[in-house]
Design a protein that fits this description.
Blueprint (H helix, E strand, L loop, with lengths): L1 E10 L2 E9 L1 E6 L5 E7 L4 E2 L9 H6 L8 E2 L4 E3 L2 E4 L2 E4 L9 E3 L9 E7 L4 E9 L4 H5 L4 E10 L2 E10 L5 E2 L3 E2 L3 E3 L10 E5 L1 E7 L5 E6 L3 H7 L11 E6 L7 E6 L4 E6 L6 E5 L6 E8 L12 H4 L3 E2 L4 E10 L1
């Protein structure tokens, strides 16, 4: 049995904070996006999150968005880099040449600070923060002052994530966040991709144009997508880079990945503030996929639809928003 603890160490040569509780362990790399790069069950050999192979940390540094749990602000794509907000137009650099859009912002690549870590009788935990001000890459393009904190806690009940946002500035700010969570399938060492079924609390599928931007219309779900809503489907049944509304079931908004060989289900319960899902499976190549809980519709500030429908909401000066998510096995 692993000692229940939290400590500073390294992950493939990078500064990291490790959490251990029972058979669980997790590691966060603060200086590269505050990314929780590992969540494992060491007794069973489960590795739930996609990690870079040993000795290939440079792959993570080059593309941190496809490993671990990257936090995005603002998430996904913005047409021509334009960002309309409260009568003002802001410009983000076009960083996805094939679509001519801005993609994902800068929180997932910027350095975060360790605020605290430790252990109690109930959990081991770490808190990291990112203060957005004149010195931040994000502020260059979206000049709003705010603090983002992420707390991760390990306990008998798995991994708890707490996201906290505080508007430190003097003007209303857009509160648009998501996680590009990379889940292993298989997560068990002796299982195969074919052994896995995924289901998620998706509702309707947004139609996307050739630039991967929502048209404002919906598309009918395929029979396999209906299985995704219900009994489950293999995560690699076809190429997926799909955008859906989120519709909580039984009071919860979640993704469940079942290893049918072992009869084990990995649950990602994301909280009901996330009104949209992106589901991306890397061209159905196998090994991992990304069920991405997202507050807002892709390109939301530039879309003429009701703000509540597209998850476009704000924080006034001094206001706080927070949400939790939990990862566990049943």
């Amino acid at each position: 049995m692993t000692q229940n603890t939290a400590f500073e160490g390294t992950y493939q040569g990078e500064h990291a904070v490790w959490l251990r509780w029972g058979s669980y362990e997790a590691a966060i790399i603060p200086e590269i996006g505050g990314n929780l790069i590992a969540f494992r069950d060491t007794e069973k050999g489960y590795r739930f999150l996609r990690e870079p192979e040993e000795g290939k940390i440079d792959l993570f540094k080059a593309a941190p968005v496809v490993f671990g749990i990257p936090v995005l602000y603002p998430p996904n794509r913005y047409e021509d880099g334009r960002f309309l907000w409260k009568g003002e137009e802001y410009r983000l650099p076009v960083n996805e040449a094939k679509t001519g859009n801005h993609l994902h912002g800068y929180l997932h690549t910027s350095p975060w600070q360790v605020e605290d870590y430790g252990q109690t009788k109930q959990e081991s935990y770490v808190t990291v923060k990112n203060v957005i001000d004149e010195n931040s890459e994000t502020y260059k393009y979206l000049p709003f002052k705010f603090t983002v904190k992420l707390k991760y806690s390990l306990s008998d009940h798995g991994l708890l994530q707490q996201l906290f946002v505080h508007n430190n500035g003097d003007k209303e700010m857009p509160c648009l966040f998501a996680f590009h969570t990379a889940i292993n399938a298989p997560f068990a060492p002796d299982s195969e991709e074919k052994d896995y079924l995924v289901k998620a609390t998706i509702g309707q599928r947004w139609e996307l144009d050739s630039r991967m931007l929502p048209t404002g219309s919906f598309q009918p779900l395929s029979e396999d997508e209906k299985k995704l809503q219900g009994e489950g489907v293999n995560p690699f049944f076809e190429e997926m880079d799909n955008h859906y509304t989120a519709v909580p079931q039984n009071g919860r908004n979640r993704m469940e990945l079942t290893d049918t060989k072992l009869g084990v289900t990995f649950v990602y319960d994301v909280g009901t503030s996330y009104k949209q899902w992106m589901i991306w499976n890397n061209e159905a190549r196998g090994d991992f996929f990304c069920p991405e809980p997202q507050i807002n519709l892709v390109n939301a500030p530039n879309v003429d639809l009701p703000v509540d429908e597209i998850g476009l909401f704000s924080l006034a000066p001094g206001e706080v928003w927070e949400e939790t998510a939990r990862f566990y096995v049943k």
